[in-house]
């Protein structure tokens, strides 16, 4: 199965894109701001003004992105004082603990889906159309007299042991990963 390598940044990207889209924010811009804030050199945090200067985005856009990232608990702030005006200023950076937690939650959702698919594939007899690859569980195939409802070809019993094996391996791999992550997240 593809895409099983560990790549936390990739998971995060998907998460941020979803989040941005749901909040009607440009996903590319949200990602850009997030990347700036997750820079390991960013210890003190960046102010709204810093981010505006670094990205060239409008103040309202920057604030909106910070807001949604903050509401999703991906970033945190430190309150400081503006050097020349003496007013409150916020310095933002990524909340890495909270992010580990988010990633873990997402992995568990993926694991649930994989388990459901594994359950489905291993408990059903699957019939397959040799022409267009449509798949049917036994009941569907039986009702249609083992003919494909799309093209009418005679269905063949599929050997899905390869699929089952790949799913089982993916489930086990992800279970191990989650175990490791949990040890890391909860011990920090
Ligand atoms: Zn067919």
Profile the largest sheet: 3 strands, antiparallel
Shape: elongated
Per DSSP E runs of 2 or more residues, the count of β-strands stands at 6
The proportion of residues forming helix, as a percent range, comes to 55-70%
Strands of the largest sheet, in order across it? 1-3-2
Tell me the β content.
Answer: 5-15%
What labels describe this entry?
alpha+beta; single chain; three-stranded antiparallel sheet; 6 strands; elongated; 188 residues; Arc Repressor Mutant, subunit A; binds zinc ion; 2 domains; 7 helices
Give a verbal description of the structure.
This protein has helices at residues 8-22, 27-37, 48-55, 59-71, 96-123, 138-143, 161-187, and strands at 46-47, 75-81, 88-94, 126-128, 135-137, 156-157. It has a 3-stranded antiparallel β-sheet with strand order 1-3-2. The model has no long low-confidence stretch (mean pLDDT 90). It folds into 2 domains: 8-94, Winged helix-like DNA-binding domain superfamily/Winged helix DNA-binding domain (Arc Repressor Mutant, subunit A), CATH 1.10.10.10; 98-187, no CATH class. Strand 2 and strand 3 form a beta hairpin. Helix 1 (8-22) crosses helix 2 (27-37). With 188 residues, it is of the alpha+beta class. It is elongated. Bound molecules: zinc ion. The site of zinc ion has 8 residues, from loops.
